[in-house]
Design a protein that fits this description.
There is one protein chain. By secondary structure, the protein is of the alpha+beta class. The protein has a domain at 5-66: 2-Layer Sandwich (Alpha-Beta Plaits). The protein contains two helices and six strands, in the order E-H-E-E-H-E-E-E. The chain has helices at residues 17-24, 49-59, and strands spanning 5-9, 30-36, 41-46, 63-64, 67-68, 70-73. The strands form two sheets. Strands 2-3-1-6 form a four-stranded antiparallel beta sheet. A two-stranded antiparallel ribbon has the order 4-5. A hairpin with a 2-residue loop joins strand 4 and strand 5 (67-68). It is globular, with a radius of gyration of 15 Å.
Amino acid sequence: MQGSKLYVGNLKYSITDEMLTELFGNYGEVKSVDVIEGKGFAFVEMASSEQAMNAIEALNGSEYEGRTLRIDEARPPKARTPRGESRGKY
């Protein structure tokens, strides 16, 4: 694992940043939490890739607030094409 940012999926919509900070804090220092409102997922950044791996191993597939968590290393965002520009030649 290269990064320390995690994707956390299959969350209840009522989950807050504070709830995830507390949960992931059991596995190391939580640098940031970003719950995506109304989408059922979040991003959690740990202080190191080792701590992130520990959190994945401990929490992936576990039940939290009645849902089975899906946790993986976050992928970098895809590059977006600005509106009005084509993606290639026709």
